[in-house]
Amino acid sequence: MATLYEGYTLCGVGPVQNSSNIGILGVEQGRDIDYVLVTDSSRSITVYKVSDQKPTGSWSVKQGQIISCPAVFNTQSQEYVVVTDDRVVRVWKEDDVNLEKAFKATVSADVLRVLSATDSEPVVLFCCGAVRFLDSLLASPQQPIEDVLTEDEIIRWSTIVKAEHQLVVLFSTEQRGEHCLYVQRFNPNTLVKHRIETEPGLSAPISFSATCRGSNIHLLYLYLNGSVYESVLPFRSSSTGAEGVQALSCSLCLSLPLGEEKLMSGAAVVLDEAHVAVIGFPHPSAGACKDYLCIWNTHFQTLQASKEMAGRIYSQLWCYSGKLYVPHGKMLSVIPFDCQKSSLAAAMGKLKQTSRNVLWFYLLLSLMNVFLTGFFLLFLQNVKSALTVDQLVEHIKTSAVEDVQAEVGEFIRRAPQADLQLAAGRVALELVSRSQTDANFYPQCAFLQLLETRYLCYSVCPELLSLAMVKKDFHLCQIAFQIFSDIPEAVTCACLKAILSTPDLEMETVNLDTDSVIFMKELTQAHSRSDEEGGQLNGFCPPALESDVSDTPSNKLQRDPLSLDMSCPVGLHKGALLNEVLQTAYSDRSLLPHLKDLTVPQVIVFLQYLRFLYFKYSHDAHKQIRALRTPSISQIIDWVCLLLDAHFTVLAVAPEAKRLVFDLHKFVRSQVKLYAELGKIEGSLQVLKNSKQSEDFGMYAIQVIELF
After folding, report:
1. How far apart are CA 508 and CA 502, in angstroms?
2. Contact 641, 611 (CB under 8 A)
3. Per-residue pLDDT tens over the stretch 343-352
4. For a pLDDT cut of 70, what percent of the chain falls above it?
5. Cystine design at 83: which of 68, 336, 606, 681 (Cβ 3.0–4.6 Å)?
6. CA-atom Rg of the chain in angstroms
7. In sequence order, which residues have a C-beta less than 8 Å from that of residue 162 and are 6 or more positions away?
8. CA distance 543 to 557
9. What is the DSSP string of 244-259?
10. How far apart are alpha carbons 500 and 243 in whole angstroms?
């Protein structure tokens, strides 16, 4: 059995820049299982944290330069390696910003790929078939590179496998219609050439995949006619390559169904000993369609799982740590999967000694069971078919709220993801349109379900947030702020004004995200560690603790620290919504004019809340609370600056703002003092960092370090 779980988008696929018509050059494993390294077909290399679906680093080559092969991560040195313009090897670290300033070396021959395996030194494969370990090549970049291949022999595919702390490089070649496989082993260093033998009339293999199981290398290759062959090579071989070209026997392990259209490309990746993932070949029951990702059981020739992929298929497929990476359309999708041994396989394993007739009997029973199950499911599907998007839109125009919400929920559950991605915006627009004309119609649950699909954005349904503010549906506003990344600054300010103008008592009755409310509750109740230790933390202390009060207008402002009111100026629910606003993307220039629409009382309350957050964050109270979404201290400071810029004149003359502005001034001055003191000891810290400690300490030693 196998399962394909719900996928998600990791990144976009840029326009094709090379002649090979490939969307992405490669996806390689990063520094651990949660990171991948994506090299696109233009000029950039990006590291993504898969669980967060966010980039953690990105580098680009200059205009006119070309990335020749996918970048890889060297797990031994914790460095990245890539080849540009065929011969320039570049090596850089995570914290390097400019790729041009990183280490680079020009080698004497064209490089095909840099191959990397976990906890092993990368191997450089040249177009001529020669291989070098990366360190030995960089030690002497201009060393001569021997020609392993003949003049018209071209490498079509390459990979590296590792087992028992040994590396083996595999690459296939094509020469005048003949296909060969080269196996480069190390320790001892041997190169063996095999001739791939298949049935007569087959064209070149379009995809290869290699895995190491036990003491053998299993090589799987796919042909355009749907045939999947497997060859087995010993991981360790006594052959030295002097015997000449050796025949590589193979066996047919899977025959994929073909549609009516002529296939031009495809890809296959081995998942385990019994399952293979295939893309580019039609689904057996979906007609002539190449837009499917399928998992097949090679032991029993059965389709185990499938998922329709929207957009153009690039016939590229990678597999790392239980996840498939598939570029399609304008995106690179990550699709988790799971493969399990079937009960029939277990039964067949127990019946090895029985007769062939008994084995066929069990196989026939299994196939009948699959056929009857599929027929029954098809019957149920025909009895109760899901609404089309056109039918659903017509129902929205006339049906009651309860019926509409039930039908929208059923549509979301049953519709294929590709169809849902296109239909979500249309359904949301129709729901908003009726809600604006019919005061008694407001399907909140349907809106929330559509938002949870993450196929909506502000530009797809721009009236949704405005409708939510009119209905004072702050729960919907909160979810939209979490999902939408393209909210205009004018709408952000309108939502902020609506939140600030709503009384706390009314806001407390709103149903909000539990995690955000718990964060606010624990933040207001948290005692900062600096209070318990009686000192200041992170350079922050309340205004009353400042010794320098030369600019204080009167002694009345020098109040006792215990009397300083640092309680939250708003309710928990209002604070949770304000936190979502703080985390919204914006442009300073676009946001400033709209902030001026806030009234003076609203500005003061908002600044008081920001001061409260700054106080808690400066004392690390927020680090004691586990929460999924919280504003950062830099976001808090940015909003304080924006509000002061937008309302500087009003705050300077308003009597009710005098105490607040004075406290903010004290906060800023405490940070300035902290950085000034750190600057004084910067030289001493640098001396300590650069000082060379003696290696021979013995059992006791006194070391004198001069600081100047």
Report:
1. 10
2. no
3. 554 334 433 4
4. 80
5. 68
6. 32
7. 117, 118, 120, 168, 212
8. 9
9. --EEE--EEEEE----
10. 83
